[in-house]
Give the backbone structure.
Amino acid sequence: MRILFTADLHLLRATREGILKKVRDWISLLRPDGLVIAGDIASASQASDALREIRRSIPDQPIAVCLGNHDFWLHEDARNECRGLSTVIDRYWVPAAEATGITLLDRKNFQIGTLTIVGGYGHYDLGFALPGLAYRGLAVNEEDYVRGYPYPDSPLRWRDFELMPGPLHPRTVAFEQVQSVTARIRAVGDSPLIVVLHTPPFEELLGIPVSASLPEGSPPSQYAFFRAYLGNRAMGDALRNLKEKLLAVVCGHTHRAAGPARVHDMIGINIGSDYGHPEAAVYSCKTMTMERVPNV
């Protein structure tokens, strides 16, 4: 049995058909037993259209998805009505998943053959922030990260704070994600288990080393600020405590490929899709290996 994994499809109108064609090509070439998408599918208001298009493109395959940060984006009026991520999931994504027969990993596990896929969004707990980061001679502090920009007139903005439900602290949301994912892991019996998250739980899966964010002897790139929002370090701590149950961890979010490689005694891979350029990997249950899918 083989499972196809992808992430960060970002089904925008301009690129949707090309992206779905590539997914169909993977299915035709590889004949996997199921497809799993690790988040960032479409904005919340587009949930029904996006999942319907995915199902129309892949009518006969079991499909599971977890959500990503972009999947919680809402216009202001709707955001004011949704005070937390759970409300967005229940209002937009649960009906869309039920209507298309797609498993929503943020709500339940995906059983395929003898393998169980457990997943969820993950969020970011600021745990991968660069220590000592400063702009204009001023150290970046937690208030800057919670606000979403490093200094008042900065052109750099982490847009989630303008588009996702709030105003919970990122660590609060991240901790809730850790609790829900680990509870679903513990609910699995002796089945082989793969965890699928949108945000990386381990630094090795960011795909962006510290040296690339903060070159020695040079002023920091403005994009070094974004490193705080790339993953959930607390999720990684929790998964290490459960590593005897895990075969692999799959993630996306950073749009940078990492792995497959052994990470904390399990296979780790960041799919590395970018806007309009989806990537994928296949896990073989027979050989217990993860391999990237070549461009087709």
Notes: The mean pLDDT is 93. The domain at 2-292 is CATH 3.60.21.10 (Purple Acid Phosphatase; chain A, domain 2). The CA atoms of residues 10 and 275 lie 6 Å apart.
